[in-house]
Amino acid sequence: MKNIIYTLCLCFTSLNFYAQVGIGTTNPNAKLEILSSNQALPENTDGVLIPKINEFPTTAPTLLQDGLLVYASGLGSIAKGFYYWNNTTTTWVALAGGFGSVNNGLNIAGSGDVHLGGNLIENTTIGQGIYGLTYNLNGTGDFSVQDNGVGKFQVLDNGSTRFGGDVEWRDNDTNGIILATLINDGNDGRFRIYENGGVSIDLDANTQSVFNEQGLNRNFRVESSGNANMLFVNATNNRVGVGTNNPQETIQVQGGARITTGLSIGNTTFGTYKLSIVDATIPSVVIGNTAFNNVESGRLTFDENVPNFTNAGDTYCGFQLYYDGAQDKFFITSGCTGRVNRMTFERTGNIGIATDNPTANLSVNGTANKTGGGAWAVFSDKRLKKDISSYSEGLDLILKVKPVNYTYNSKFTELFGEGNGNATTKVFQGVIAQDLQKIAPDMVTTVNTDVDNSNDADGGSAKSNGGQFLQVDSSKFTYALINSVQEQQKQLDAQQKEIDELKQLVKKLINKN
């Protein structure tokens, strides 16, 4: 029987077949179809064995063998797996599941991953299309770009990025107009920003830095944490401002200034001072007159356009410091041809903001705030107190208070001024002192707005400003409210206890039924 089968196979192999051949089937569906003994439970002999090799043939296949399939055993230098001959590239190509390499450093691992290495053999473009391309440095390796073996760009595994050589930024693409450069200047850095192809800003660590290199109308501004115009260079008008973006002179300082060496106005050096205040012990300046109780006892004016405001009185445009000897008050005023008192200092120590008649160490007519957060604090150390006792007022006081809306009348502005200009129009919330005095007299005090300085050394006189008025210290409300909350919380706790007891009682009744 074996001889018959062998003879038939030999006959078949010596003939040209144009029909289909089946092994394990009488109805082949292709030129050659091999069926397993059992598709669901195959035997270990079901399959086709491709020729095994340990090494690739010494003589390469030809075009006639293009597509020749072999199986590397892994016993030689070739990674285990299937390979086919690609006559176009004259290389053996590994199929997925094997591990092979070609002469340009391309490797295919058994897992199907592709490893790149070696030199390209032709110009290559990678078209990403709609897909992203990510280099993940998730180990200790670095990503480097070299030019003839010299490192030019590198991303280290620690996240740092390095450039080797000059760097250019261009508009839209690498052939666009240049926007900025970072170059080597004698082993020092030099950063340039361009405008329309020309250098506009040149930061050179080796020599000097230049802003607005092209001499155009390009202002320069330095901002601090609290001042948007800490330094402002107005290129249009050739002016420099400190603390202002609208300098009116070549140099304008908005705020205080300190000169530690010397001040020169109109001279090339400060050897000959135009303004000099010098003393071996205590340098001082005196501004005043030769009479007592004079309204004009001295003024220091900070003026704009001085040639147009030459009078020594109230005609100025800016700020003014002046002392009124008749009232014994020092004023800080501002305005332009019309004076407005902004701050008042009395010899008694009272200071007023937006009022000419302060009635306390600090009187503010209008709004006030404290920047930077925090709170106004008072000393509350037990070591600084005596006669300490419990304070018990709470709901009993709060429930008697009658809050009201109100606006100030003309008498208020006559005494204390307009403040922010809305004292007689803005609606405030508060209490009526006379009403509060009936229930909490310790919260109400009397202020005398009249002034009598007739006993002063300068021989002043008494002045009536309208008499006595009541003021309210509302700080007590804070602690009364604290007691109120505590008192109400006790009531809430008691009510909650009753509710819990009622719940338990209801629960027992329900369970009983």
From TrEMBL:
Q: Point out the signal peptide segment.
A: 1-19
Pfam families assigned to the protein according to its UniProt record, in alphabetical order: Peptidase_S74 (PF13884)
Q: Does the keyword Signal apply?
A: yes
Q: Which InterPro entries match?
A: S74_ICA
Alphabetic keyword roster: Coiled coil, Signal
The Peptidase S74 domain is annotated at: 380-499
The UniProt record lists the keyword Coiled coil: yes
PROSITE patterns from the UniProt entry: ICA
| Parts forming coiled coils | 485-512
- UniProt name for this protein: Peptidase S74 domain-containing protein
Q: Which organism is this protein's natural source?
A: Aurantibacter aestuarii
The record lists the lineage as:
Bacteria, Pseudomonadati, Bacteroidota, Flavobacteriia, Flavobacteriales
